[in-house]
Amino acid sequence: MGLLSFQQERMIFFPQKLTADHAFRFNQEFEEIYIPTKDGVKLHGLLFKAAEPKGLVFYLHGNAGSVDSWGLIAQTYTDLNYDLFLLDYRGYGKSEGSISSERQFYEDVQAAYDQLKLIYTENQIIIAGYSIGTGPAAMLASVNKPKLLLLQAPYYSLGNLMQNLYPFVPAFLLNYKFETFRFVEKTEAPIAVFHGKEDEIIYPGSSEKLKAHLKPGDKVIFLEGQGHNGMNENPAYQKELAEVLNAAD
Questions:
Q1: What is the chain's pLDDT, residue by residue, as a tens digit (249 residues)?
Q2: Which of 35, 154, 165, 190 would be 134's cystine partner, CB 3.0–4.6 Å?
């Protein structure tokens, strides 16, 4: 149990590190953005621009890879006339440092959000989270006033997910709670939840459990045949997403 207590980051986060001079290759135009944190670490992200943007989707990606791979999802959002900003967490991609606490994680995404508000008005910003990014995305939406919160394959809480995946691991030992259910209760913005019915990592019942914590008008959408990965490329998701975004405009 001591190993679990002190090396949880290795169990939860699987970053792809990039060199500082790494050259990204995407078919779309993008801008590299660096975000300073209060402890002097620089975070890195990519901003993809739509031709006629209605606003911005601030996207918190999953626990593996970096913006080098996650950048491939950009067209799904720019085609719907939204700019997309992808943030790499500490230790991912070109972001410095390493993740060491839940609080630090929350402070970092808030720092990125604050910088984005220098470019976009807050009522133009949509917060989105995928997989591990859903808890921090929900936290961010609960303490700010974004236009909309999108959650893809969310967990009820990280403790609940771990109990489902590893029943022998006591949830109280987790240093990362990521209690999505508490944050959505405090979120004033409209919420849309998307979950694949065939998700083999985060069980679909997580989103079913979240329903009880959502407000009237929030949506939970289950996608037939969708596993944990590849949701952004799923035409069924893209259709549902377009309807959600149109309703929010």
A1: 444 555 788 888 889 999 999 999 999 999 999 999 999 999 999 999 999 999 999 999 999 999 999 999 999 999 999 999 999 999 999 999 999 999 999 999 999 999 999 999 999 999 999 999 999 999 999 999 999 999 999 999 998 998 888 777 777 778 889 999 999 999 999 999 999 999 999 999 999 999 999 999 999 999 999 999 999 999 999 999 999 999 998
A2: 154
In the chain, what are the domains?
A: 2-248 (3.40.50.1820)
Identify residue 145 by its one-letter amino acid code. K
Question: Which residues have a Cβ under 8 Å from the Cβ of 192 and sit 6 or more positions away?
Answer: 148, 149, 150, 151, 218, 219, 221, 244
